[in-house]
C-alpha cells in the first residue's frame, strides 16, 4: 500500500477530528450548565438566571452548529478513507454509529430548535424540558461514539469469521461490545473533560466581564455555578477517572502505556514529570520520581510494568508524540485543579471578584481544557498505533484501496481551508457575542415567553421597573 | 421476508425521508437568490431555520444505518466516489454555516457572500445527490473485490447528469411549495409564479429521463415488464405532479407540499425497485454487483439494528412531528430569528 496515501489519510482524520473536537466538549459542558441555570430560574423566577440561561443558550447554539457542520464529514470518513477498515468492522462498529444517529442526533437537533426559537411558542416548563433533552442528546452522542472508539482500543464481544467477501469481525454479544473493558471509564473520562471545557468557557467569559466591570451580577452568577462544577470535576478527573483510565490502558494496551510513561525496561516504573524520549539511546531523559508509576498502578514500588523493550519494534506507537501529548494533558489537568481550587478559596474569602490577577488567569483558562482534551485524544489515538483495532488490524491495512495521493492532497487542503475558515468565523462570531453581552433583564421581561408568567412575577417585574 | 429485505426497505425509507426533508431546504436554498430584498431573504432562511439541522440528521442516520447493515456498500460507495463525496460534504458544510452566520452582521457585503454560499451549496448538493442516484441506477464498474474502478469524470456521464438536473428541478419545486406555505403577500405571489415554470421544467426533464431510461438503461425496467402492475407508480407520480398547481390554486398549500413529497418518494422507490436486489450494480461485470446479501452484516447485527430501529423510530417520528407542529404556519421574524 502506498505510504503517502496512508499518511495523508491519517493526517486528514487527525486534522478533521481535532478541529471538530474543539466544539462538542463546549456543547456538552454548556448543556449541563444550561440545565442548571434554567432550572434555578424556574425555581426562583429570578430574571438574572433567565438572563444567564438565555445568553449561554446562544453561545451553546454557536458551538453546537459548528459541531454538527464539522461532524458530518466524520460520519462518512470511515467509508471514504478507511474502506477496508469499514469492511472488516462494519458488522460491529456500524451499529454503534447508527445508534448515535438515532438516539442522539435527532434528540439534540429537534429540541435545539425549540430551545432557540421556541420561547413564546411553548411554555417555560416545556422549554426547560427541551433544554434537558438537548443536554441529554449531546451526552448520548458522546456515549455511542466513545463506545465505538473504545471498541477499537479494547475490542470485545465479536469473532473473526469468513464473511461474503473475506475475513471480518462479526458481533457475538452486543452488550459485551457496548461494555467492552475500556468503554465506561473512557466515557466518564471524556464527559468530565467536556464538563470542564464548558465550565471554564463560562468562567473565562465571566471573568472578563468582571474585569471590565460589565454585567457584574450576570458574570458573578455564571461564575459561581461553573466554579462549583469546575472544582468537583477537575479533582474527580484526576483522582478517579484519570487514575482508572491509566489502569485500564496498562492492563489492555501495554504498548501504549509504556509509550505514555516513557518506560523502557520492563520492571518497576518511575513517574517522569517532564522529559523527552531519546529513541536512539533507548531511554527517557527528564525529571523522574522512581517507583511512583508502579505504586499508582500496582500499589507497590517494585510492581513490574511492561517496558518498551518487550514490545517488538513494529508494534510500538510513535513514542515522542504519545509521551508528550500525555504529559501535556496531565499538566493541563493539574493546572485546572489548581486554578479552580484557588478560585474557590478566594470566593470563600470573598475576594474572588476583585482579584485582578486571578480573574485574568481565568480569562485565559479556557485554553486549558481544550489543550487537555485534544492532547488526551492524541494520546489515545496515536498511542493505539500501529493498530487501527488494537491487536486485530493494522492502520495500514484499513485504508481505502482505491485512493490516490492526488485525491488526498486535494481533500486535505480543502478540509484544512474550510475548517480553518470555520474556526475563524467561530472566533469572530463568538467575540461579537461576548462584546455584545447578555440581553438586559429589562428587555427579557417584554419577551413573549413571559406573557404567560403568573401575576406574581409580573408584579415583581413592575416593582423592579419602578426602582 | 428476511432481514436483508427489511433493511433494504428501511435504508430506502431513511434516504427517502432525507430527500423529502433536506430536499425542501435545498430547494429553498436554490431559490434564495431570487428574493431581492434582505427582508425576503431573511424570511427564506428563517422558513427552514429551526428545521434544516434536524433534516440533515437523516443523512447522518442513513450513513450510520448503511454502515451497520450493508458495510460493503458503505465502504465501496464512499471510497469509490471519493472526490464527489468530499465535494458534497463541503457543500453541506458551507450551506449550514452560511445559514448560521448570515444574520450575525448587518453589513450587506457579508450577507450577500453568505447568501451566495447558501444558494450555491444547496444547488451543488442537490445536483450531486441526483448524479449519485443516476449512477447507482445506471451501474458502475466494480472489480471482484468490490472496489470502484471509475473516476470522478466518469460519474458525469450524460444519463446521470440528466437525473441530476431532474432532481434539482424537483427539489427546487419542492422548496418553492414549502416557501408558499411559509410566506404571505407579495413574496408568496412571486414564488407562485415561479412554481408554474418549475412544474413545466420538471415534467419535461422527467419525460426525457424516462425516455432515456427506456433506451439506455433497460435493465431497470425488467422488473416492471415482469410485473406490469408496478407501472402504476410512474402514472401516480405524474398525477401527483399535476395535482400541485391544482392544490395551490385552491389554496391547499399543505396538500401541494404532500404531493411534491409523494413525487420524491415515488421516484426514489422507482429506482429502488429497478435495482433490487442489488444495492450497487456492477457494469460491465454484473457478477461483481453488491446485493442485499453479499454486502450485508451478519444476521445477529441486522437483528440488533432492527431492535434499535424499533425503539428509535417512534421517538424520532414523535419529535420530528412535534418540531414541525411547533413551527407550523407563516414565518414571523423576531429577535431570535436568523
Can you walk through the features of this model?
The complex is a heterodimer of chains A (467) and B (338). Chain A is mainly alpha-helical and 467 residues long. Chain A has one domain (3-266, 306-466). In chain A, 72% of the residues lie in helices and 8% in strands. Chain A is built from 18 helices and 8 strands. Chain A has helices at 3-20, 24-44, 47-81, 83-117, 124-153, 174-178, 183-211, 216-252, 254-261, 292-298, 319-348, 356-365, 367-382, 395-398, 405-436, 441-445, 448-451, 455-466, and strands spanning 158-163, 166-171, 267-268, 271-278, 283-289, 304-305, 387-389, 393-394. Chain A has a two-stranded antiparallel sheet. Chain A has a two-stranded antiparallel sheet with strand order 3-6. In chain A, strand 1 and strand 2 (166-171) form a beta hairpin. Chain A is globular, with a radius of gyration of 24 Å. Chain A starts with a helix and ends with a helix. Residues 448-452 of chain A have low confidence and may be disordered. Helices cover 75% and strands 1% of the residues of chain B. Chain B has helices at residues 3-31, 38-48, 52-69, 71-80, 82-102, 108-138, 152-155, 158-182, 185-216, 222-226, 232-249, 253-275, 299-326, and strands spanning 278-280, 290-291. Chain B is built from 13 helices and 2 strands. Chain B starts with a helix and ends in a 12-residue tail after the last helix. With 338 residues, chain B is mainly alpha-helical. Chain B has one domain (3-326). The longest helix of chain B has 32 residues, at 185-216. Chains A and B meet through helix 3, helix 4 and helix 15 of A and helix 3, helix 4, helix 5 and helix 13 of B.
Amino acid at each position: 500500500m502506498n505510504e503517502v496515501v496512508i499518511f495523508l489519510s491519517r493526517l486528514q482524520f487527525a486534522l478533521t477530528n481535532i478541529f471538530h473536537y474543539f466544539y462538542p466538549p463546549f456543547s456538552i459542558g454548556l448543556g449541563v450548565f444550561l440545565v442548571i441555570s434554567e432550572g434555578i430560574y424556574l425555581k426562583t423566577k429570578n430574571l438574572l438566571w433567565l438572563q444567564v440561561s438565555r445568553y449561554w443558550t446562544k453561545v451553546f447554539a454557536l458551538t453546537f452548529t459548528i459541531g454538527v457542520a464539522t461532524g458530518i464529514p466524520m460520519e462518512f470518513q470511515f467509508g471514504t478513507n478507511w474502506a477496508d477498515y469499514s469492511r472488516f468492522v462494519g458488522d460491529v462498529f456500524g451499529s454503534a454509529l447508527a445508534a448515535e444517529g438515532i438516539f442522539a442526533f435527532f434528540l439534540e437537533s429537534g429540541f435545539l430548535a425549540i430551545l432557540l426559537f421556541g420561547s413564546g411558542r411553548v411554555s417555560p416548563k416545556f422549554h426547560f424540558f427541551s433544554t434537558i433533552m438537548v443536554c441529554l442528546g449531546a451526552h448520548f452522542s458522546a456515549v455511542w461514539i466513545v463506545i465505538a472508539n473504545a471498541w477499537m482500543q479494547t475490542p470485545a464481544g465479536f469473532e473473526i469469521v469468513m464473511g461474503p467477501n473475506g475475513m471480518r469481525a462479526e458481533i457475538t454479544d452486543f452488550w459485551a461490545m457496548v461494555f467492552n473493558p475500556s468503554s465506561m471509564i473512557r466515557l466518564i473520562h471524556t464527559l468530565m473533560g467536556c464538563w470542564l471545557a464548558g465550565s471554564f468557557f463560562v468562567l473565562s467569559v465571566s471573568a472578563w466581564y468582571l474585569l471590565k466591570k460589565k454585567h457584574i451580577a450576570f458574570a458573578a452568577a455564571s461564575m459561581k455555578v461553573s466554579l462549583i462544577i469546575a472544582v468537583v470535576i477537575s479533582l474527580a478527573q484526576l483522582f478517579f477517572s484519570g487514575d482508572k483510565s491509566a489502569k485500564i490502558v496498562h492492563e489492555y494496551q501495554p504498548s501504549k502505556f509504556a509509550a505514555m510513561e516513557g518506560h523502557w525496561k520492563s520492571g518497576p516504573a518511575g513517574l517522569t514529570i517532564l522529559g523527552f524520549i531519546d529513541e536512539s539511546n533507548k531511554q527517557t531523559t527528564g525529571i523522574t520520581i522512581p517507583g511512583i508509576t508502579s505504586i499508582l498502578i500496582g500499589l507497590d514500588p517494585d510492581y513490574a510494568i511492561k517496558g518498551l523493550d518487550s514490545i517488538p519494534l513494529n508494534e510500538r506507537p510513535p513514542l515522542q508524540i504519545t509521551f508528550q501529548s500525555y504529559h501535556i494533558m496531565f499538566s493541563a489537568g493539574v493546572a485546572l485543579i489548581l486554578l479552580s481550587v484557588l478560585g474557590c478559596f478566594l470566593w470563600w474569602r470573598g475576594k474572588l471578584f476583585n482579584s485582578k490577577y486571578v480573574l485574568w488567569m481565568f480569562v485565559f483558562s479556557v485554553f486549558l481544557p481544550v489543550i487537555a482534551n485534544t492532547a488526551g485524544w492524541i494520546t489515545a489515538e496515536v498511542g493505539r498505533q500501529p493498530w487501527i483495532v488494537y491487536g486485530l488490524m493494522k492502520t495500514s491495512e484499513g485504508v481505502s484501496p482505491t485512493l490516490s495521493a492526488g485525491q488526498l492532497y486535494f481533500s486535505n487542503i480543502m478540509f484544512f481551508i474550510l475548517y480553518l475558515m470555520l474556526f475563524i468565523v467561530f472566533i469572530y462570531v463568538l467575540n461579537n457575542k461576548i462584546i455584545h453581552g447578555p440581553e438586559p433583564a429589562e428587555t427579557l421581561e417584554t419577551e413573549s415567553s413571559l406573557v404567560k408568567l403568573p401575576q406574581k412575577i409580573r408584579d415583581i417585574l413592575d416593582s423592579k421597573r419602578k426602582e | 421476508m428476511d432481514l436483508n429485505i427489511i433493511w433494504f426497505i428501511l435504508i430506502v425509507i431513511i434516504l427517502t425521508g432525507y430527500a423529502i426533508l433536506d430536499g425542501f431546504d435545498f430547494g429553498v436554498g436554490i431559490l434564495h437568490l431570487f428574493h431581492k430584498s434582505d427582508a425576503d431573504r431573511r424570511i427564506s432562511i428563517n422558513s427552514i431555520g429551526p428545521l434544516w439541522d434536524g433534516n440533515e440528521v437523516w443523512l447522518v442516520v442513513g450513513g450510520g444505518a448503511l454502515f451497520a447493515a450493508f458495510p460493503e456498500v458503505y465502504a465501496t460507495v464512499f471510497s469509490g466516489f471519493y472526490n464527489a463525496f468530499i465535494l458534497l460534504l463541503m457543500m453541506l458544510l458551507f450551506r449550514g454555516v452560511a445559514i448560521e452566520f448570515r444574520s450575525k452582521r448587518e453589513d450587506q457585503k457579508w450577507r450577500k457572500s453568505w447568501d451566495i454560499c447558501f444558494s450555491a451549496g444547496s444547488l451543488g448538493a442537490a445536483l450531486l445527490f441526483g448524479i449519485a442516484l443516476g449512477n447507482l441506477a445506471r451501474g458502475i464498474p466494480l472489480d471482484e473485490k468490490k472496489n470502484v474502478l471509475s473516476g470522478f469524470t466518469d460519474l458525469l456521464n450524460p444519463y446521470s447528469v440528466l437525473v441530476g438536473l431532474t432532481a434539482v428541478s424537483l427539489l427546487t419545486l419542492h422548496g418553492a411549495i414549502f416557501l408558499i406555505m411559509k410566506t404571505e403577500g407579495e413574496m408568496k405571489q412571486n414564488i407562485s409564479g415561479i412554481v408554474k415554470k418549475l412544474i413545466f421544467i420538471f415534467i419535461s426533464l422527467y419525460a426525457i429521463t424516462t425516455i432515456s431510461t427506456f433506451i439506455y438503461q433497460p435493465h431497470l425496467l425488467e422488473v416492471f415488464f415482469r410485473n406490469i402492475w408496478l407501472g402504476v407508480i410512474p402514472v401516480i407520480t405524474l398525477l401527483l405532479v399535476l395535482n400541485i398547481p391544482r392544490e395551490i390554486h385552491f389554496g391547499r398549500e399543505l396538500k401541494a407540499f404532500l404531493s411534491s413529497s409523494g413525487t420524491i418518494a415515488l421516484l426514489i422507490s422507482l429506482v429502488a425497485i429497478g435495482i433490487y436486489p442489488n444495492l450497487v450494480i456492477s457494469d460491465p461485470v454484473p457478477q461483481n454487483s453488491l446485493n442485499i446479501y453479499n454486502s450485508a452484516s451478519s444476521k445477529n447485527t441486522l437483528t440488533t439494528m432492527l431492535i434499535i430501529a424499533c425503539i428509535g423510530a417512534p421517538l424520532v417520528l414523535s419529535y420530528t412531528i412535534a418540531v414541525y407542529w411547533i413551527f407550523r404556519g407563516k414565518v414571523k421574524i423576531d429577535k431570535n430569528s436568523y
